[in-house]
Amino acid sequence: MSAGKKEFSRLPGCVSPINYSVWLKPCFKTFTFAGKVDVCVKVNEPTDTIIVNSAEIKPGSAEFCANDVTFSPAAISVQEKEETMAMKFDKPLPLGNAVLKISFEGILNDKMKGFYRNQYEVDGVKKFGAVTQFEATDARRCFPCWDEPALKATFDVTLAVPKELCALSNMNIIHEEEYKEDSNWKLIKYATTPIMSTYLLAIVIGEFDYIENHSNNGIPVRVYTAKGKSFRGEFALDVAVKCLHYYEDYFKIPYPLPKMDLVAIADFCAGAMENWGLITYRETALLIDAANSSAHARQWVALVVCHELAHQWFGNLVTMEWWTHLWLNEGFATFMEYLATDHCLPDYNIWTQFVAHDFKRALDLDAIDNSHPIEVPVHHPDEIDEIFDAISYQKGASIIRMLYNWIGDEGFRKGMHDYLTKHSYQNAATEDLWQALGEASGKPVNKVMESWTKEMGFPVIGVSSSCQTEGALTLKLTQRKFCARQNSTTASGKKVWSIPLIVATPKSPHSEAQRFLMDKETEEIVLDGVSKGSWIKMNSQCCGFYRAQYSKEMLEALQRAVETNSLMDLDRLNLVNDLFALASSGVSSTVDFLRSLTSFKNETSYAVWNDLDCNIGELSILLWDSPEVLSKFKSYVISLYEGIAKKLGWDAKPDDGHAGAMLRSMVIRRIGKFGHKDTIAEAKKRYQDHMSGKASLSADLRSPVYQIVLANAEGDELDDLIKFHNSADLHEEKERIERSLGSVSRTDDLDKVLKFAMSDNVRSNDKVFVIGSVGCGSAVGRDIAWRFVKSNWDELHDMYKGTFLISRLVRMTTENFTTAEQAEDVEVFFNEHPPAAAERTVRQSLDSIRKNVEWWGRDRKEISEWFCKQ
User: Fold this and answer.
1) 432 or 381, which is more confident?
2) Which of 407, 460, 745, 852 satisfies CB 3.0 to 4.6 Å to 818 for a cystine?
3) Same fold flag, 1-200 and 459-572
4) What is the DSSP letter of 357?
């Protein structure tokens, strides 16, 4: 499979847009739409041809009006592969301002991109509406346009829709009247938008209820839901109002639009989309049911709402110049979502979960050979979807958090305000942000941060200590690139990062002992007031994007600190995460990591347990093809979890808090799926009571209970749960069941799950995750899911090409293989069936497989022998 650059060129700069006047009329019987667009343009240089972006649009008439003269194109040609439309005139067009008028017809597609149809139900009756999803390059599927982020313009939208439907756009309605051609329709005109990129324009048409509140500045904030379900928007509305005020205060820039709408969409590919003034969401990313939503679901909704609202400033008000700088949008919005959620919901202790989820994901992906720099050159539009990943989002957010802790909140706030003010309604690049933050903080931000954005990867710091004078300890530090595989192709060559370091000691366990900048390959620092044998924790509070490898003596001291709970939870999490990464990459022994787990038997932090659980899950996948060793491993894990499981019990306690509910769910899931008999028995009992209506199962326990029951199914449990899924009206419940189905163990049941995935009972945006649940559930499921994907590739690829879901499908059904033969099979298949917009994902999956091959080949004997002694 070729990793080379694809042929692509951006639109010529001879003509640029100023304002679009867009008129659209959808038809829900034929799933088509009629459209007209009048574009005020500026002809910047002599040309006889206007080229715009256009895809799946049939052009009608076109004309160019300048200086009271109308020009008709001699020819209109459509280049389907390039997604462009060219209008060639008989003579050069006059320079200056003019109006380009185009009529056209389009398709309300079922691909969840462009202007597409959205199926929903009202009182059990299936109906259709229309929704737009334009990021990254799909505004061109709705109307001919200059579909590049730097080519900003204002927009005037007019919609013709049936009278009974609600129609929303970015701005408020300024005029509504009966549609003259049909009295059952209405014509709606919206206010002119601010100058913005095409990918932020939005339209939503359908039947909705809404609830409303107002921001501190009087901005109306509404959450739109399906009919009769507006009560499920109350949590999101509360978060949105608080968050909007927080950002206005933080950035010192008022929200610039007259309203803010948040809309739950039934058929939606992504988690959410930050369209200016009209944010669209998956139902599970916006709606919360007080009786049936889990703590995890509440947290997810809060984070996504805060993420999309951050974009109203960072991305919408100031936009990246080109997709190479995508991380400016997504990395900052991801960082700000945690900052805002921490402010709105401080009891969530959300930063510990940032480290457990986002920070860890970024490190894992950035350690493989086929990672990419934060600023990755983007050539062809197909490559854009590939960088909506953990590097742009999670690594971006992690290095911003590192920067934030280095320059401090005051400098960060001022720099953000200056950057957003200077570049409002314009486009910017990474260097513009570094300049603003550097000037605000007085620190060499650009010099330090270039080492993190221009190249992929991150360092591991080797740490040893010596006591040269009484009461002081000297740390000897060495940095080198960390690689997930010993046979990495990217390990060669010297690479030095500028690393803001924070060190904790017993003298200051809850704050840094010392801060300094490491910008050389080797450094020595002296810590005063620290005696020999004391624990020393690098990367205090896990703010730096690097790993640490301690000398044997230093590691032993840290493990004693874990056992006595002397380290803060983020430091305990960081320690175990580094230990596992060093073991899986071959830098240290996997058995040494397994031994270290006993230090965490008395652990109580959800974030720490979550990281331990992820590591255990990854190890179990490595052992899938070695049943005897896997069985012993499961017994060992159960012995580690039994203490916390007994302490937590099955029922909620008054002092659980937000994290306690999630910890109980995670612990029960792990020991139940690993075969703990009492847990399996209790799960079956509670499942029966829940399904019979005898006693409702807590929302936090449904996912683990469903998985445990399915993994131990002996009868019709799968059929019963699928029926329960089909009758549920809360999408969170449907999704919970869908992502549990792959837990079944019988081959015929796994085949049944895959058949169900492709049925009309599973929405297109969820089918991937049902298939993925099979691929991630067991060795048998992995093999069956991969065969299924290969057999149905044409249908699946056609369904998801051009969306991030194709990457999810590839990753979930390939990355868990563990043999060289399986790697070859994956590589050969995708060489023969190139996956548009997922080529990088295939290479990353192959990296994961080859890492597993090397890992097991290297440590197999030692792991097997160690478990035989347990």
Assistant:
1) 432
2) 852
3) yes
4) I
Which CATH class for the 1-200 domain? mainly beta
- Which one is predicted more confidently, 609 or 488? 609
- Spatial contact of 244 and 255, defined as CB atoms under 8 Å apart: yes
Instruction: Count the residues in the chain.
Output: 870
CA dihedral 832, 835, 840, 842 (to 10 degrees): -60
Buried b (16+ CB within 10 A) or exposed e, 640-662: bbbebbeebeeeeeeebebbbbb
Cβ pair 302, 344 in contact under 8 A:
yes
Q: What dotted CATH number matches 658-868?
A: 1.25.50.20
Amino acid symbol at 862 = E
What is the fold, at CATH topology level, of the domain defined by 459-572?
A: Immunoglobulin-like (2.60.40)
Q: What is the DSSP string of 140-209?
A: GGTS-B--STTS-BEEEEEEEEETTSEEEESS-EEEEEE-TT-TTEEEEEEPPPPSB-GGG--EEEE--E
pLDDT, mean of residues 283-289: 96
Q: Which two tokens stand for residue 39?
A: 């574009």
Structure tokens at 700: 């936090």
CATH classification for the domain delimited by 318-453, as one of 1.10.390.10, 3.40.1160.10, 2.40.160.50, 1.20.272.10: 1.10.390.10
Q: Which residues contact 564 (CB under 8 A, 6 or more apart)?
A: none
Helices (H) and strands (E) in the chain, counts: 27, 29
Task: For residue 299, give the amino acid letter.
Answer: Q
pLDDT over 60 at 177, yes or no: yes
85 by DSSP, 3-state: which? strand
- Mean pLDDT, the chain, as a whole number? 93
**Main-chain phi, psi angles of 389, to 5 degrees:** -140, -170
**Per-residue pLDDT tens over the stretch 201-213:** 999 999 999 999 9
Tokens, residue 822: 């399986």
**pLDDT category of residue 121 using cuts at 50, 70 and 90:** confident
What is the rounded CA–CA span in Å between residue 181 and residue 737?
A: 47
The predicted structure's pLDDT at residue 599? 86
Summarised one tens digit per residue, pLDDT across range 550-589 is 999 999 999 999 888 889 999 999 999 999 999 999 999 9
Ordered by start, the domain boundaries in the chain are 1-200, 318-453, 459-572, 658-868
Residue type, 835: P
Strands (E), 482-611: 499-504, 514-518, 522-528, 537-538, 547-550
Residue of 83, 148, 274, 308 with catalytic role: 308
Predicted pLDDT of residue 538: 93
For 94, the token pair is: 């006059």
Place of tokens 């919206």: 190
Token pair 């029960």 is at which residue?
Answer: 668
308 labelled catalytic: yes
User: Residue 533: pLDDT band by 50, 70, 90 thresholds?
Assistant: confident
